[in-house]
Specification:
Layout lengths: L10 H14 L7 H10 L5 E6 L5 H7 L6 H8 L1 E5 L7 H14 L2 E6 L10 E2 L2 E2 H9 L2 E7 H6 L15 H5 L4 E3 L6 H14 L12 H4 L3 H4 L3 H5 L10 H4 L18 H4 L58 E3 L6 E3 L17
Helix pairs in contact: 1-2
Length: 354
């Protein structure tokens, strides 16, 4: 699909773009004209100062490789990214002067990618500690948006033993920020958050972890295309097996979908082509606080997750033995026949215990 700058789009393509944003914001199609108006009437593109701290720049890679909207649309039509170390032409002293001027003008969205090293000398830019740069940049910011698992809760750089004392942006600043966790962040999450501010004059409603509810309000498990296999107790127990090729449930292979909140199955990555579970590997829980430590080892199943069709019986995934039964789904009266699980509980003793 060929992509154009927003100013080159015909009206139909522009409204299609606004429709995608409406979907991301959890709004009906009735809001499409309002979103279009908010973008068209903006006196200037929202100013963005994008800081890079302790991370692998994966979130930037995710954003600049987006196809709809494209990186060109993001940079030239939607946002005014005034400072961004990876994509800006300036370097060295010139780039630091741009950052200083942007901070002095104020009124920008401060986007932070990467965790904050809180020990002197562990993370520096232009001979200055990252934490000092963050404090300065946060003072005149219109809003602070932490993107990716590292910036929100510490992520991989903040995992044990964490010698740099890395913290998430909000924790370090001691104030509420908008958290967009994920490894990496989805570019649509960033755009939807900023457009919400343009449309309503405020940032989206946040959950107790600082995440927009419109993005992180549902469990991955509830929208997973493999959910039906979970409900029937049919699991992959070995990569490369017949069950794996048939795309059965990955819960026993360590999928953290039942304990992870995000709309990943709906927005997906790489031009909406795929996401983690679709590739054949389970969700690792990267949008949750405490990741990765709290979800390690990634290949270990979460304990005590009940399987719906066996309701009323001790039937967690790690307890199911060789069973063939008929159950009625609660509330809807649909009868399921549980598939014979013999051969899928290899190495289990009677009662399902190791």
């Amino acid at each position: 699909m060929k992509h154009y700058l927003l100013k080159e789009l015909d009206r139909r393509e522009f409204l299609r773009f606004c429709g995608l944003l409406a979907s991301m914001l959890g709004l009906s199609d009735l809001y499409i004209p309002k979103i279009a108006s908010a973008i068209e009437k903006a006196s200037r593109r929202p100013s963005v100062v994008w800081l890079h701290f302790a991370s692998d720049t994966g979130c930037t890679e995710s954003v600049i490789k987006a196809t709809y909207p494209s990186a060109a649309e993001l940079v030239l039509d939607i946002l005014s990214i005034d400072y961004h170390e990876t994509i800006m032409a300036a370097a060295g002293t010139q780039s630091e002067e741009i950052l200083k001027r942007s901070i002095e003008e104020g009124g920008y969205f401060l986007i932070v990618e990467g965790g904050v090293p809180t020990k002197r000398g562990y993370g520096m830019i232009g001979r200055r500690d990252m934490m000092d740069i963050l404090k300065e940049a946060s003072e005149k910011a219109k809003a602070i948006i932490a993107i990716g698992a590292c910036a929100t809760y510490g992520g991989v750089p903040g995992a044990r033993p964490n010698p740099a004392g890395i913290k998430g942006v909000g924790e370090y600043l001691g104030r509420q920020v908008v958290n967009l966790p994920g490894c990496p962040v989805n570019p649509e999450w960033v755009i939807a958050t900023i457009v919400h501010n343009l449309l309503f004059g405020r940032l989206p409603e946040l959950d107790r972890y600082g995440r927009p509810k419109m993005i992180y309000g549902t469990r991955i498990h509830d929208n997973c295309p493999r959910r039906a296999h979970f409900d029937q107790g049919v699991f992959v127990e070995e990569f490369g097996s017949e069950e794996a090729w048939e795309r059965k449930c990955l819960y026993k292979m360590g999928c953290k979908g039942p304990n992870t909140f995000s709309n990943c199955p709906l927005v997906r990555w790489n031009d909406k082509i795929s996401w983690c579970v679709q590739t054949g590997y389970g969700c690792t829980g990267c949008t949750e606080p405490g990741w990765p430590d709290a979800f390690s080892p990634f290949r270990a199943a979460l304990p005590g997750v009940a399987i719906p069709i066996f309701k009323g019986v001790e039937n967690t995934a790690d307890k199911i033995g060789a069973t063939l039964g008929v159950a009625t789904a609660a509330g809807i009266g649909i009868h399921f026949v549980a598939s014979a699980l013999k051969g899928r509980t290899k190495g289990k003793k009677e009662g399902g215990e190791e």
